[in-house]
Design goal:
With 64 residues, the protein is an all-alpha fold. The protein contains three helices and no strands. The chain has a domain at 12-42. Helices cover 80% and strands 0% of the residues. This is DUF2304 domain-containing protein.
Amino acid sequence: MAISISVVLLLFILAVIFVRNGGLKPTHAIVCLLLGFYLAGSSIAPTIHSGLTATADMVSGLRP
């Protein structure tokens, strides 16, 4: 759960930066938001979740 919140927070910060710099229009941000909600409710959501979880586990297992 902490990984999901961290990813959401990171994506939110990036969206705010893009909107402020003019690289992302507010309407584009709304479209991205709606896409996220539709993806979360689709049948591909478990696959996306598994992929993100596996990537987070792999990154957390790396030792410098």
